[in-house]
Amino acid sequence: MHKFMIGQFVDLIHLTLRPSARGAYEIRNLLPATDASPDDPRYRIKSASEKYERIAFESELRRSRQPETQLS
């Protein structure tokens, strides 16, 4: 079961080995969990600061505290 919904804005928890844009990401699509992490569903997310989408596990996301901004 997914915690976030399509269109919702979240923050990506930044890791040293994974450079990523700061700020809110929009949930673009819900993806199933992997066999290796069956309790950690995945999401396709997009930042207005990046040209591409990312895939992130639910454990790497938290609700955004920034105002929601529509992405094109």
Structural summary, described in words:
The chain is an all-beta fold and 72 residues long. The protein has one domain. It is 0% helix and 36% strand. The chain contains no helices and five strands. The protein has strands at residues 9-12, 24-31, 42-47, 53-57, 61-63. It has a five-stranded antiparallel sheet with strand order 4-3-2-1-5, with no helix packed on it. The protein is globular. The model has no long low-confidence stretch (mean pLDDT 88).
Give the topology, please.
Blueprint: E1 9-12, E2 24-31, E3 42-47, E4 53-57, E5 61-63
Strand order of the largest sheet: 4-3-2-1-5
Q: Helix count, per DSSP?
A: 0
* Order of H and E elements: EEEEE
* Helical content (DSSP H or I, runs of 4+): under 10%
Main sheet summary: 5 strands, antiparallel
Strand content: 35-45%
Judged by helices, strands and strand pairing, the structural class is: mainly beta
Low-confidence segments, given as residue ranges, are none
Give me the count of strands.
Answer: 5
Compute the number of structural domains: 1
End-to-end distance: 27 Å
Report the mean per-residue pLDDT as an integer.
Answer: 88
The radius of gyration computed from the alpha-carbon positions, rounded to a whole number of angstroms, is: 12 Å
Give a short overview.
Helices cover 0% and strands 36% of the residues.
Task: Output the keywords.
single chain; 5-stranded antiparallel sheet; 72 residues; mainly beta
